Amino acid sequence: MPLSRSKKEQVVENVEQLLKTSKLTVIARYQGMSVKDMQTLRSQAKTGNTTIKVVKNRLVMQSIKHLEQYKNLDLSQLQGMLIYAFNPEDEVAPAQSIATFAKQKPIVEFVGAITTEGKWLDAEQVKTLADLPNKPVLIGSVIALLQSPIRSIVAATNGNLTNIISGLKAKAA
Question: What is the pTM of this model?
Answer without folding.
Answer: 0.75
